[in-house]
Amino acid sequence: MAVIDFGGVKEEVVTRAEYPLAAAVKTLSSETVAVLGYGPQGQGQSLNLKDNGVKVIVGQRKGGRGWKDAVDDGWVEGVSLFSDLGEAVRRGTVVEYLLSDAGQKEHWSEIKANLRKGQALCFSHGFSVVFKEQTHIVPPLDVDVILVAPKGAGRTVRSNFLAGSGINSSFAVFQDATGKARERVIALGIAVGSGYLFPTTFEKEVYSDLTGERGALMGAIAGVMKAQYDTLREHGHSPSEAFNETVEEATQSLYPLIGRNGMDWMFASCSTTAQRGALDWAKRFEVAARPLFELLYRDVQQGVETRRVLETCGAPDYRERLEKELNEWKESEMWQAGAAVRALRPENWKKD
User: Fold this and answer.
1) Residues 179-217: pLDDT tens digits?
2) Is there a catalytic annotation at residue 235?
3) Is pLDDT at 352 greater than 80 in this prediction?
């Protein structure tokens, strides 16, 4: 492992320099990776593994979008695609359990019944194992239990791979039954297309992941954007102006600068007026938001958030209610304005 200085704290990470893709593929050469679930993570990870030369099969129930996507992507029923999840488990040596968290709870008895000694059970989220009192997922003692968690949506796991880059991933070993769990998990992490791997635990992964999704990655940013847009609109600004000043400039100009070289570089790339205002108000937003983040982390740690996920996402009418919630965002003035603004980007102009 390489030792990297992260802001004054030295951490050990795995990079492709000391563990190249060829080594990962060699480690996995005798394995069959059974990917259960063909949602965004299942789709991205399975295709990346296959493209990297790893033997992969997919387990996905028939009748939904996941099955159609799998067929469209070239997986062949009865050969590399199986509607019986138990059969996919039996055919694999490494089982990637990538159903939704609620789906993992629902299908666990079937999965557990088909696991055998020496297999590896791999998760991309610590949710099910850490909150076993809620999910009832307790893996058998004779299988490796490992985690490879890409730090990005499944769609970017695939798109970044196709673009020649990667998504950083965390990895963990919860249970080493075979003596080779660590080697297996590092090989899997590299083979799914990770840029580099950093060690964690199942607990730390789920606590940080749930906090991030509800916080700065998605929930907080959506809420802050909505609050600013509504404030500008209430003070007489047009929808296009409010959206450009709230979202378009952020996503098309400023956030890419942050991603490229950091927050300081983004500040340095702006006018002195923007710099001064941002630096001053960042402290005020930090003070205002910190108590909310402490509350969020507590709810994650105490299982409040996982309980809500299992109760709501496991409900029979969840997809209908989810569609209604998503449409509320899509059909709001703010995001209707966004659709119009995106259509006006030069790259979206219709060519004569």
Assistant:
1) 999 999 999 999 999 989 999 999 999 999 999 999 999
2) no
3) no
Adjacent-strand bridge partners of 144 = 120
- Residues near 99 by Cβ (< 8 Å), separated by ≥ 6? 36, 37, 39, 42, 106, 107
Confidence band of 166 (pLDDT split at 50, 70, 90):
confident
Q: CA-to-CA distance for 309 and 311, rounded, in angstroms?
A: 6
Contact between 186 and 146 under an 8 Å Cβ cutoff? The reply is no
- Rg (the chain; Cα; Å): 22
The CATH number of the structural domain formed by 2-200 is 3.40.50.720
Given a contact cutoff of 8 angstroms between Cβ atoms, the answer to whether 128 and 137 are in contact is yes
- Beta-bridge partners for 14: 197
DSSP per position, 12-59: EEEETTTS-HHHHHHHTTT--EEEE--SHHHHHHHHHHHHTT--EEEE
The span from the CA of 112 to the CA of 246, in Å, is 48
Nearest to 34 by CA among 145, 161, 119: 119
- Contact assessment for residue 112 and residue 90, using Cβ atoms and an 8 Å cutoff: no
Catalytic entry in 125, 136, 235, 237: 125
pTM of the model: 0.91
Residue 34 has pLDDT above 90, yes or no: yes
Query: Domain boundaries in the chain?
Result: 2-200, 215-348
